[in-house]
Specification:
The structure holds two protein chains of two kinds. By secondary structure, chain A is mostly helical. Chain A has 14 helices and two strands; from the N terminus they run ααααααβααααβαααα. Chain A has a two-stranded antiparallel ribbon. The radius of gyration of chain A is 20 Å and the shape is globular. By secondary structure, chain B is of the alpha/beta class. Chain B is about 40% helix and about 25% strand. In chain B, helix 3 packs across helix 4, helix 3 runs parallel beside helix 5 and helix 4 crosses helix 5. The longest helix of chain B has 17 residues. In chain B, about 45% of the residues are buried. Classes of the chains: A mainly alpha, B alpha/beta. At the A-B interface, helix 7, helix 8 and helix 9 of A face helix 2, helix 3 and helix 4 of B.
């Protein structure tokens, strides 16, 4: 009940937010929400399966380029093009997931990185189709279906992105709390035992990688549609590294944390880059500080504050959780 | 027909023959213990039956079906539940969550990834039942890592019985427990075994535990079966005495 209230309040606040901020910051707001969605998709792997993907840019890039390429050939309405781009990302993700999940730990990270870099290299190899280093520019946002066109305006697009983010969050939340999600917790805690209990853990991991690619592809497609272009850096390992930092700083294994991580990352970058060219240095420092002093991340800090305050008020002193389970 | 039958199992590690032509059978409802000194091949036999290791030769037949070399998770799906010598649990999850994941393993809808409230409720009540049988109800909401070593052992057994197995395999369930903890664990196990007609294969070091629980005993020595029979017969066997009991005490 508490959770539902929080969700509704947050959704309402986000809905009125565009009217409370200056018009030009709407661009950053949309970008922040898209990166929040992207970070949350990676959290399915990092936070719930302890699979550290260092190539999640592949999902983002695949979503963005699929969207752009679809529209190069077929003038589909925006929602249909986005859904189709997600479907393409998912189909390509299946063999990638099948190969990457053959290994774990560092080799898993390296394999995912290799696939992202492979995508990056292919953009330059097939420059007739992909535009090479220029990327694909001038991607349209077609109206429809049924004459719907509100998402063509910037404000309308903000609401579309908001709906995608909240919808994806609800889906992911349902997934991690389902019987399937319970198995993921088992894999995270002790994979050998989970296999011995009778679970085909590899199949669960493949499914999760594909799901993470699907949500990541949605973020990529939303980005391409918003920016109007898709460039090779979406596939680049820096994108993978940044989203991994967002997840860890936000708080892995919480879904909300990585969204906050992604959102705050975009805002900080925007603010700092206006002041100094040294902002990556500041990011590095923040990241190190979180890893060393607050491994539970932003959301972890927020919720532990809340919890300890409740414990002090003494409403239910006996029910204090022994150690953070998430 | 025996529930489990191992025929001529062999497992080599390089030049070492850890398991050398072993025949072993568990009848339905039988509680059979496998004993032997360190390095006799007990744990290797366990790993061969559960397919964690592939045999160099021989067959494992379970309920009339050849399960030799089957993937580990499929062996579990056939109805063989095991515990590990070094306790394997999910330390950051609560006791109930640990057992719930085990109970859900053979649920037809374990793959459901949206909703699934009914599967979760079903597994939770099966878990609570298994937890009660291991006398862990008081600890059900505690994080597994907070439990004493003895309770963690019982937790792993609760997970195994929540799988509703046809054959329960316990690998040294009282290893590392104090005398009091061992006594308590044996009592709980005994009560549980009296209730149902579970078939059990038990590897154990502690002779007292074996003689209290087992119907029949197989004695291994250097990868071979040197004796097989009732506890009284095994205790009386001169060969067993010289190989194991005498040497150990």
């Amino acid at each position: 009940m508490n959770w539902r209230l929080g969700f509704l309040v947050t959704a309402a606040a986000c809905a009125v937010l565009p009217f409370a901020v200056p018009q030009h910051s709407l661009t950053i707001l949309v970008e922040a929400l898209i990166l929040g969605l992207f970070a949350m998709s990676l959290d399915l792997l990092v936070g719930y399966c302890r699979l550290y993907s260092f190539g999640h840019a592949a999902a983002y890039g695949l979503g963005a380029y699929s969207y752009a390429l679809i529209l190069t050939y077929v003038p589909l309405p925006l929602p249909a093009a986005i859904l189709l781009a997600v479907a393409v990302t998912i189909v390509i993700a299946i063999p990638i997931a099948w190969i990457c999940t053959r290994s774990t730990g560092v080799s898993f990270a390296m394999l995912t990185l290799a696939f992202a870099q492979l995508g990056y290299a292919m953009l330059f190899r097939f420059r007739d189709v992909t535009g090479g280093s220029d990327g694909l520019v001038g991607i349209p946002r077609h109206p429809g279906p049924f004459g719907i066109d509100w998402f063509q305006s910037k404000l309308g697009y903000y609401y579309l992105v908001l709906a995608c983010l909240f919808g994806s969050y609800l889906l992911c939340r349902a997934i991690v709390r389902s019987p399937f999600g319970a198995v993921l917790a088992g894999i995270r805690e002790n994979e050998a035992k989970t296999i011995a209990l009778g679970y085909n853990t590899r199949a669960y991991k493949i499914t999760t990688v594909v799901l993470a690619y699907g949500f990541g592809g949605l973020a990529g497609a939303l980005y391409a549609a918003f920016a109007g272009f898709a460039s090779p850096e979406l596939f680049f390992w820096l994108t993978s590294g940044r989203v991994l930092i967002m997840v860890i700083v936000g708080g892995a294994g919480t879904l909300i944390g990585p969204i906050l991580g992604g959102v705050s990352f975009v805002f900080l970058e925007h603010q700092l880059s206006q002041v100094t060219d040294l902002w990556p240095l500041i990011f590095g420092t923040i990241f190190m500080a979180f890893v060393m002093f607050a491994p539970q991340g932003i959301w972890g800090i927020l919720t532990s504050r809340f919890r300890s305050r409740r414990a002090v008020s003494g409403s239910d002193s006996g029910k204090e959780a022994p150690g953070a389970a998430t | 027909m025996p529930l489990l039958e191992c025929r001529g199992l062999v497992r080599r590690f390089g030049a070492l023959v850890a398991v050398d032509d072993i025949d072993l059978a568990v009848e339905p409802g039988e509680i059979r213990a496998v004993i032997g000194p360190n390095g006799a091949g007990k744990s290797t036999v366990f790993n061969l039956i559960t397919s964690v290791l592939k045999p160099s030769a021989g067959q494992v037949i379970f309920a009339g079906e050849d399960i030799t070399g089957m993937p580990v998770h499929e062996v579990a799906q056939k109805g063989i539940a095991r515990t590990f010598q070094l306790c394997h649990i999910f330390p950051a999850l609560t006791v109930r969550e640990n057992v719930r994941i085990a109970a859900q393993a053979r649920d037809g809808r374990r793959w459901q990834f949206l909703g699934g409230g009914r599967v979760l409720n079903r597994s939770t009540s099966a878990a609570d039942e298994a937890i009660a049988r291991m006398r862990l109800t008081r600890m059900a909401d505690a994080t597994a890592a907070m439990l004493s070593h003895g309770d963690q052992r019982l937790l792993e057994i609760a997970m195994a019985i929540a799988q509703k197995p046809r054959l329960l395999m316990l690998d040294e369930p009282t290893q590392g427990l104090s005398i009091e903890e061992t006594g308590r664990a044996v009592q709980i196990l005994k009560d549980m075994l009296m209730e149902g007609d579970l078939s059990v294969l038990l590897v154990e070091h502690d002779m007292e535990v074996v003689f209290k629980l087992a119907d029949n005993i197989t004695v291994l020595h250097r990868g071979r079966v040197i004796a097989d029979g009732s506890p009284a017969a095994v205790r009386a066997s001169a060969q067993v005495r010289s190989a194991y009991l005498g040497g150990a005490q």
